[in-house]
Structures are given as structure tokens and as C-alpha cells.
């Protein structure tokens, strides 16, 4: 069942300039917390192209976390809108084996996944208050540096709600109906198959895997989409096969925070998380050892210097605390108003 997909990975492309993929780090056993970042990794692996992964929380200044994934090909940085066209221009084409008719069919399936299943996933993650507060908000905040972790999840949510309103999908029934229809169609197509086409995995497989694994792995308290997907064993087997073939493993699924209190989100820290799915050079580092070594000697500061340092530290902590309180208060107080506002826009 896996032979077609395995055959694709055997065709490794010649080594070229180092490709670096800037993305959100993994979560819940998925290659990335963001399905668009997972898709970029899956596409490169289907093509057999080596690459390196750069954690967004450790990236150099100047990048926009609202435009991930970003591909760095030598000195050029390619944003999501042009990422796959850039790869194809460089000879990295996951659809190279497809005929013209199969490419047209692939485009139709890709649109179904991104426009219907993607819309339902957007609603489940960002419009469902319980899911956003318990899972999505802390997940993204932990993957961003200070001060972005304090306000960026709120900004991302506003963008998601605006997108849902423009597409007329602010209603729970509409979003989940579209997602359910997409899951049923995918299940019919992929039942008993390892890929969409007989020639092996292609770009549409990378797209389908990225959204299906997000639905399957994200432990949302209100998991309507996940429950529907788990009721389709053939589709779950497809996700497991792709993950095992191209990412080397398929980790056990996590229960939702509602059923397992141990999975409640940890406190906000703004620190970068671990990165188990880096496919390239393993860049270690960290300044903890030097800090520990520096703390071994006796302080030579005068009492006046120590008082100044203490006041400075208190001032910084006070400023950070004020920013955090403002961000939380804005999110909590404005949450219901945002939903009412977007619902009103949709009715108009």
C-alpha cells in the first residue's frame, strides 16, 4: 500500500543551494502548528529535496510572522504566495509525473481541501472561543518571542474572523457542513489508496496531508471535525501512511484538554519550543551554560549599583506586566464584541 509513496522519496534531487524554511515549530506530533507550514515541508519531502528548518521564534529581525512559511533560497526570501511557483521554476515539481488531465484534477482536489476543509478548520481553531483560548492562543504564543507573543495571536484571530465573515462562514453549521462534505469526498477518493494518483504522491497529497493531520492532531476541546475524521478509518490510514513514509513516524494522538487535565496549556513564557522535525543541519546553541558559569563568582557591585539594578529590573517587569494585562484584558473583553461584530457584518 505504501510502495507508490515510497518510490517517490527514492528519487532524491541533485544537491542545489541550501533551502531554508522559516516556519512555526511542531506541535501535537504534527510537523508544524500551522497547516500551511506543514504543507511546505510535505511538498519538499515528496520532491525528495533536502532543506533546513528555521524556527520562527529564533529568526532574525525583519521577518513577518503573519506571512509564514517563508522559503530562503540563497539570498532570496520567497513568501507563501510565490513559494511553490518558485520551486517549480527551479525544477522542484511534485507534479512532474502527472499528465495534463491529472494536473487539472489535482487543482480541483486542492481547491476542495483548502477552500472547504481549510475554512472549517479556520472556524474550529479561531472562531470557537473554547478552542482558541485553551489551545490555539497558547500554542502560537509559545512559539513567538516577546513582545509578539503578547498580541500576535489576537491579531491572527481578528484576521481569521474577518476571512470567515467575508466567505459567509461565521455560522457553526455552515463551516462544519463544508468541512464534513470535504472529508467525505476525500474518504471516497482515497479509500484503499496510498495517494491520489497511481504514479505516487504529488502536490495534492502534500496539501491533503497538511490539513488532515492538523484536524486529526490538534487536541481541541470542541472537536467536531476531528470526531468526523476519526469516523473515517480509511482517511485516517492515509494520514498515517503519509506521515510514516515521508516523516518517518506517526505519533499517538493526544486527547483533548477537556478529557485530560494534564494537557491544560502551560503559562505564557514566550520561549522557543523544541524542534524535532528539522530536516537538515541540526543547529544547537543556547546561552544557559555561560550564564551558569558567570553566576559562580561573588558580585563586586557596590550597594548603590545593586539598588540601581534592582530598580531597573522592577521597572522592566512592571512594563512587561502592564503590557500582558492590557493584552489579556483586550482579548477577554473584546472577544464577544468581535464575534458579534463579524456576525453582524455577515448578516448585512
From TrEMBL:
<dbReference type="GO" id="GO:0015031">
    <property type="term" value="P:protein transport"/>
</dbReference>
<feature type="domain" description="Metaxin glutathione S-transferase">
    <location>
        <begin position="181"/>
        <end position="240"/>
    </location>
</feature>
<keyword id="KW-1000">Mitochondrion outer membrane</keyword>
<dbReference type="InterPro" id="IPR033468">
    <property type="entry name" value="Metaxin_GST"/>
</dbReference>
<feature type="region of interest" description="Disordered">
    <location>
        <begin position="254"/>
        <end position="310"/>
    </location>
</feature>
<dbReference type="Pfam" id="PF17171">
    <property type="entry name" value="GST_C_6"/>
</dbReference>
<dbReference type="Pfam" id="PF10568">
    <property type="entry name" value="Tom37"/>
</dbReference>
<keyword id="KW-0813">Transport</keyword>
<dbReference type="InterPro" id="IPR019564">
    <property type="entry name" value="Sam37/metaxin_N"/>
</dbReference>
<keyword id="KW-0496">Mitochondrion</keyword>
<feature type="compositionally biased region" description="Gly residues">
    <location>
        <begin position="282"/>
        <end position="298"/>
    </location>
</feature>
<protein>
    <recommendedName>
        <fullName>Metaxin</fullName>
    </recommendedName>
</protein>
<feature type="compositionally biased region" description="Basic residues">
    <location>
        <begin position="301"/>
        <end position="310"/>
    </location>
</feature>
<feature type="compositionally biased region" description="Low complexity">
    <location>
        <begin position="270"/>
        <end position="281"/>
    </location>
</feature>
<dbReference type="GO" id="GO:0006626">
    <property type="term" value="P:protein targeting to mitochondrion"/>
</dbReference>
<dbReference type="GO" id="GO:0001401">
    <property type="term" value="C:SAM complex"/>
</dbReference>
<keyword id="KW-0653">Protein transport</keyword>
<keyword id="KW-0472">Membrane</keyword>
<dbReference type="InterPro" id="IPR050931">
    <property type="entry name" value="Mito_Protein_Transport_Metaxin"/>
</dbReference>
<feature type="domain" description="Mitochondrial outer membrane transport complex Sam37/metaxin N-terminal">
    <location>
        <begin position="37"/>
        <end position="157"/>
    </location>
</feature>
Amino acid at each position: 500500500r505504501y510502495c507508490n509513496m515510497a518510490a517517490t522519496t527514492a528519487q532524491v534531487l541533485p544537491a542545489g543551494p541550501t533551502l531554508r524554511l522559516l516556519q512555526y515549530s511542531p506541535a501535537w506530533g504534527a510537523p508544524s502548528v500551522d497547516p500551511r507550514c506543514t504543507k511546505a515541508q510535505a511538498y519538499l519531502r515528496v520532491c525528495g529535496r533536502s532543506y533546513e528548518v528555521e524556527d520562527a521564534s529564533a529568526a532574525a529581525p525583519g521577518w513577518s510572522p503573519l506571512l509564514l512559511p517563508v522559503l530562503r533560497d540563497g539570498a532570496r526570501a520567497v513568501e507563501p504566495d510565490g513559494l511553490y511557483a518558485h520551486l517549480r521554476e527551479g525544477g522542484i515539481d511534485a507534479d512532474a509525473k502527472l499528465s495534463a488531465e491529472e494536473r487539472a484534477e489535482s487543482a480541483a482536489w486542492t481547491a476542495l481541501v483548502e477552500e472547504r476543509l481549510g475554512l472549517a478548520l479556520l472556524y474550529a481553531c479561531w472562531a470557537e472561543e473554547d478552542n482558541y483560548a485553551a489551545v490555539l492562543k497558547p500554542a502560537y504564543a509559545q512559539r513567538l518571542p516577546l513582545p509578539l507573543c503578547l498580541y500576535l495571536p489576537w491579531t491572527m484571530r481578528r484576521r481569521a474572523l474577518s476571512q470567515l465573515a467575508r466567505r459567509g462562514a461565521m455560522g457553526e453549521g455552515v463551516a462544519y457542513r463544508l468541512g464534513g462534505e470535504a472529508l467525505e469526498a476525500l474518504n471516497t477518493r482515497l479509500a484503499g489508496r496510498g495517494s491520489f494518483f497511481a504514479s505516487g504522491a504529488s502536490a495534492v497529497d502534500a496539501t491533503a496531508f497538511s490539513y488532515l493531520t492538523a484536524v486529526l492532531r490538534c487536541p481541541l476541546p470542541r472537536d467536531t471535525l476531528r470526531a468526523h475524521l476519526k469516523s473515517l478509518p480509511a482517511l485516517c490510514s492515509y494520514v498515517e501512511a503519509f506521515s510514516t513514509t515521508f516523516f518517518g513516524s506517526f505519533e499517538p494522538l493526544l486527547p483533548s484538554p477537556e478529557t485530560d487535565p494534564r494537557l491544560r496549556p502551560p503559562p505564557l513564557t514566550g520561549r522557543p519550543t523544541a524542534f524535532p522535525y528539522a530536516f537538515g543541519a541540526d543547529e544547537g546553541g543556547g546561552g544557559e551554560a555561560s550564564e551558569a558559569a558567570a553566576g559562580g563568582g561573588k558580585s563586586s557591585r557596590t550597594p548603590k549599583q545593586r539598588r540601581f539594578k534592582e530598580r531597573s529590573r522592577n521597572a522592566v517587569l512592571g512594563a512587561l506586566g502592564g503590557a500582558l494585562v492590557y493584552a489579556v484584558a483586550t482579548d477577554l473583553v473584546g472577544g464577544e464584541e468581535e464575534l458579534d461584530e463579524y456576525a453582524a457584518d455577515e448578516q448585512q
